[in-house]
Amino acid sequence: MESQDGAELCFPQLFNTSCKKPAPPWTEVILLHILPSFISVLTVTLNLLVIISVSHFRQLHTPTNIILLSLAVSDFLMGLLLMPVEILRNTACWFLGDLVCSLYNSLSFIITSASVGDMVLISVDRYVAICDPLHYPTRVTENRVKLCVCLCWLCSVFYGSLIVIDEFKIPGRHNSCYGECLITVGYIAGTIDLVVSFIVPVIVIVVLYLRVFVVAVSQARAMRSHVTAVTLQVSVSQTTRKSELKAARTLGVLVVVFLICFIPYYCVSLAGDNLLSGSYAYYVLFLFYFNSTLNPVIYALFYPWFRKAVELVVTLQILQPGSCEANIL
User: Fold this and answer.
1) For the chain, how many structural domains are there in total?
2) pLDDT 10s digits, 259-268
3) N or C: which end of the chain has fewer CB within 10 A?
């Protein structure tokens, strides 16, 4: 009876075409609203700290950190825009219209592809720095890195607009009723997205980081072989051995976290529109977005300068005159 008098409808005036208001039990409210909201706030906070730190302190204006800044911007937008809209899309009626729904769909492709592109740029930067250190200062300059970052964002905007171009022709054509925003990915578009946003970046990242790891290990072994003093050799051996373990652990975290967060989404997207539109896809998509929460942890929290920069930001010491020249390295 409640649905007949419009009490549970998103648009009571549209009796035959309106969607019903979601009414999940409290256990699902925790999983669908409270936990994702916390992740969204955490994502925005961590990436905002990276953005402020790299932008403010002059010592951090390096080619590597420029890419890190771009990654933090894309992940910041992920937490600020995509995550809250995704929560709204799955826990409440959609009152923003079909065109905004299509824009959100396009924006999700733009931001995620920019984030993946930045990860590829970081792997290329580390590859050149470790495998060809003598030519690194001349090959990887700030201007070239800025150009690559701009191209990454431009390509992401073009790609994100092109892959959902049909959604803009007839906005909301996949919606079954008023008050919902369905995100559907066709088989062809899903396959293209799988290749462009996952398979190719994964191959590049894995190959480059494996090469970096091999070179780092070979350099460490070469250093041990040239040590003549026994006591010094033992000390260097212990240091290099720890370095090898740290390098292996870091590279493993980078690759494994990326795969864990991205593989389920693309498996579900290729499974079909019905599965992609189900409640299971909500958790898969948030796991996909959760990579943006982990990126600042992986790429920034491992660095001592970031902890010092965060301390200066939190204590508002960056508001003091000349704070941008502070020595934090």
Assistant:
1) 1
2) 788 888 777 7
3) N
